[in-house]
Amino acid sequence: MNRIVACLIMALLTAGLSYLPAQSRMINKNRRSDPALSRSYLYLAGYYRTDLKLSDRQMDSVRIYARKASRIAKKATLEVVSSYEREVLKRIMSESQYEDLFVYKNMPEARLLGEKVWNEMVSLQYVSRADSARLYSRVRAWLHTVLVARDYYAENAELRERYLEDLSVNAPACLYRLYHNGERKPPANNYYRSDFIY
Prior knowledge:
mainly alpha, 9 helices
């Protein structure tokens, strides 16, 4: 058994692979090439088909409408194509699948945005690297929720703004400082913005 594993490793290394997938080494790759960062909702429905538990019939519909959307994209703007794709997906998917699509779609974006925002807050000394992982995960979860809400309520601007205002009330205090040029929100007037997570 060990000989077979050793032969497979040697074959992979001689084939030009300089790392093994089990290694924890980070791979520098172009972040734009990540398929999860696509703007097409129909493409993402196909990409996350196992996570969304799409049936074969639903996937056939996604493929058919994806071809139509690519024809529309040649003549129309990005907003028109996105609106068409959202309308089609509402008919194809159940409500929970449709919501989950936006959750999965925004995970990589929230991860990248969370890292960028956290590093910015560390450089401005609003937080330190020693701050809890729970605070970092809370910031990232809040950013993820905002991204999902923007996508989910894209067709209804009034409802989207109302929902985002409600979310901003519950934003972590360190994000408030970042978005308001270092000003602190008085905790006596706003109990939701505590600096410490207990």
